[in-house]
Write a structure and sequence with these properties.
The chain is α/β, with parallel strands linked by helices and 323 residues long. It has two domains: 136 residues, 3-Layer(aba) Sandwich (Rossmann fold); 145 residues, Rossmann fold (3-Layer(aba) Sandwich), CATH 3.40.50.2300. Helix content is 42%, strand content 18%. It is built from 13 helices and twelve strands. It has a seven-stranded mixed beta sheet, sandwiched between helices. Strands 2-1-3-4-5 form a five-stranded parallel beta sheet, with helices on both faces. β9, α10 and β10 form a beta-alpha-beta unit.
Amino acid sequence: MRLIGLAVVLAFSVLAAPLLVEAQQAKVYKIGLLCSPPGAYVAAFEESLRQLGYVRGRNVVFETRRARDCRAEELPKTVADLLRLNVDVIVTEPNHFIDAAKQATTSVPIVMVYGRDPVGRGYISSLARPGGNITGLTWDPSPEIFGKHVELLAEVSPRLSRIGGIVHPSALEEDSLKAAEDAAKRRGIALLYMQVRTESGLPKAFASIVGHRASAVMIFGGPYLWGGRAQIATLARKNALPTIYMYREGPDAGGLMSYGTNLTDAWQRAAIYVDKILKGAKPADLPVEQPTKFEMVINLKTAKTLGLTISRSIVVRADEIIQ
């Protein structure tokens, strides 16, 4: 009888094993994307997840929610919508989106793709031990990157005396502005800021920059400025102004140059955090990454249009040249 009972148990185990595996495989994770990033980044993020075993429609779905025009006052409602869907993790950037997610939940894991000063903003306790429900990547290790932007523009235009800075209010960071101002002051360059809230405000901003006799433009960032990068490049060429962006998509769209972290790489790295969290890791225990590689991209075709000769000393330092 014992042998018969054992045989029945073993047979049941053999039959049940595939059912258990199938049940495990049937788990479909919900990833919330707060304020939809550009399609190319979503594609890179999704491809990285696919390589880790997550396939859209099979074991993962993406719930994308975007506040109207990405307005800060609408973000709480947008985050609440994601939370009602019981997402397993929220992926978002930049800081004002992270702020909204942080205020809405202390339990749902949040992966920041590039957060500015996450310790100072209270997102995490430390880079090594975040200690809460937020982890991910920082945007850059120091605001000095904007000082580098001033220096590069000065190298490209040796007679540069005024720079027009374009910034979206949501991306206004005092330490970044101060770093740029300090670098400009050291070189005897005046730095003027133009706040742009929508893409429709870009022509007026450029008219003001030209009116103040600035001869170069720095793009400080913000949701509309990313989306308006091609319009910025067109306006800059029309007014014979060299531009520098934080992201390589600027020169891709016809701007002169960029210096900063690779945003596609950041989204790919974010997928690794999501994978670890979905497999049971706690955000509190996942160290926050700082960028280790910065890239410079130069559009020589634009330089030629602007009548600029880019010195070999700059060209050889570039990570990519667009001909």
